[in-house]
Amino acid sequence: MGIFEIRDAFYLNGQPFKILSGAIHYFRIDPDDWYHSLFNLKALGFNTVETYVPWNAHEPHKGQFDFSGRLDIERFIQTAQSLGLYMIVRPSPFICAEWEFGGLPAWLLEENMRIRSSDPAFIEAVSHYYDRLLGILTRYQVDQGGPILMMQVENEYGSYGEDKTYLRAVRDLMKEKGVTCPLFTSDGPWRATLRAGTLIEDDVFVTGNFGSKASYNFAQMQEFFDEHGKKWPLMCMEFWDGWFTRWKEPVIHRDPEELAEAVHEVLELGSINLYMFHGGTNFGFMNGCSARGTLDLPQVTSYDYGALLNEQGNPTEKYYAIQKMMATYYPQYPQEEPLIKECLPARTLSLTAKTSLFANVHNIAQVETSLYPKRMEELGQHTGYLLYETDVEMDAPEERLRIIDGRDRAQVYVNDRHLATQYQTEIGKDLLIAGDEKESVNLKILLENMGRVNYGHKLLADSQRKGIRTGVCVDLHFHLQWKQYPLELQDLSRLDFSKEWQENAPAFYRFDFRLDCVYDTYIDMMGYGKGAVFVNGHNLGRFWEVGPTTSLYVPHGFLKEGDNTIIVFETEGRYQETLQLVQQPTFLTIKGENL
Prior knowledge:
globular, TIM Barrel, Jelly Rolls
């Protein structure tokens, strides 16, 4: 049993305690690598690990929960405790985290509610989720003999709303369901966000998020504390040591020595949580999306983040720079040599088989018919692709076609021949289809959900509903009679590679190979257009030739000694007869500034 208190400082069992924490998201790392990452955090001299908890991963469908495999948060907690690490857990309904929909389940979009508000329907949904989640977490609080020091009520709410009734409802749910450790909020360090997003008046601890200028930002927080008569310690809950990456934009780099000095500035004044310590990977289709004006800008699969550990989990120059700084200024925190993983030797895989999506769609998707095209969420689908199909009777040799209100990216095929690809701002523009008058042509539209926004007011925007959301016009009228094939691509075991492959159409490419020993690797996707990669059934995530990242990380836990299979789902008709396994990630050089 232990006692963690927040007074004029942090106290653990009555003794002052400086929190030296690093963020490691269990859901972005293969469980076989949790020990490796946590050990390297401890080896730096740090004493605490922080993690978000993604609601949409744990309750992907209403009332259906998953705490297995990469989502086994209990095993992650136990692994941290076995290394002597304490924990900060952030189980707030919304997490941001550059994660699909900020961690909110997409099924909420089909419920009659206002998310992140005191709407009773939303609070009820959170309550059912907390019944399962907090039933696990509360057993591992420090006063129960576990490692959890404190938990978060809401995340950067001051950058979204000021509904204090909502914040209190979440706090009360946590307490009702057994949370006894201190609670906190985290927000930007300036007064507007602190005033809107905290419960300082209710004595809920306040932390700040920033990535530089610690003296200035902590001064703003201290002024807010003084205004409310609070003598609290200062803590940066997210000290951004790097940044995330979006498609078509350059990777942001931060100088390791400058970062080490910036971290030192924080530690002179308070406690820290490095965001990220190990970023990991947005496996599957779980990357988030930035909102910029009318555009949603999806993020890449890698969540390397420029963190202290790279995507693979090995130390970077930033790790060693902070290690040196810690040894110089804080020798009381013992350090060890970090662990380093190996990679497979580079090798070239030869194509085993290929087959068309169109020839296999009945094998891997359950068709649903409707009068008008349906959205993803109406079909119970939340990520991936959705294929629409219909037949169009031609009233003239050339007809005008328009997709009315679709998200996010549409590929249009007439009689299985590619007609056009439209993305956000192009969707809705005229397309011309040709055929014999009074005859029918087959129309297929492949819609990709490229990721829901994870931050800001557009969480409430209709753009977060994916697929064709209004209809498809031929000439001037809405066309009827549609088939829909949901393609979350969770099970590819029924793919039939004996079926035909079509040129310039979405297709699957299989690579079979054997391994005598298993290590991490990267797949170089140069020469392929756009799509996703599956290794022994594990969805690695998206690739896209526009860069800047042109490879996908494969943890050794996804591989096995003996026979292995890689399946590439490629939507642009661009592929190679070979696939390269390499030892380092690959990139395109993109010049310019990030938006």
